[in-house]
Description:
mainly alpha; Arc Repressor Mutant, subunit A; three-stranded antiparallel β-sheet; two-stranded antiparallel sheet
Amino acid sequence: MDNANLYPLIERIGNLLRTQIRKAGNDLGLQPVHLQALDYLARCNRYSDTSAAVTDYLGATKGTVSQTLKVLERKAYITKVIDAGDKRVQHLKVSKSGHELLSACWPPSMFHEASERLGETDRNQMAELLTRMLRELQRANQSRTFGVCKSCSFFRSDGSRYHCGLTTERLSLADSEKICREHTPGTLAAAEFAA
């Protein structure tokens, strides 16, 4: 299949998903960007839960992200927590109601239904191919990978303990499974790549 046929397929899939996300958010007074930011914050690690990281991840303006975070905070889907080591840094944490919202509508039920009909083998192959496509797009755009910590070249493990080779800080198992703004691709499996 050539690019002239591939791009419209990917674009159409994106449009269908955005339409469903828009519908889910409208009932709650939320825009798709609000749900995208909330999803990111639910999946990122402690190095990546700041407004600057949300801005990078979404590729949005600081103003858009600032307004997005205000809406999420006003609706009690996120809270701000001052960093213990650096009082200038505010971490954005997803609240219980924020996690409940994501469980109810993210990703859209239409996506779950369609992917279940594909079967596990097809989903795995698609994940691998889309991961490769995403990596190439990120390289071409010179953007951050925001990959899963344990797939990073800085990730270190000595069996039962983990740490980051970049920050030299210890990591929990949960930390190792979250996406990171500082991610540098190492050995990358499709299932470990976040977006």
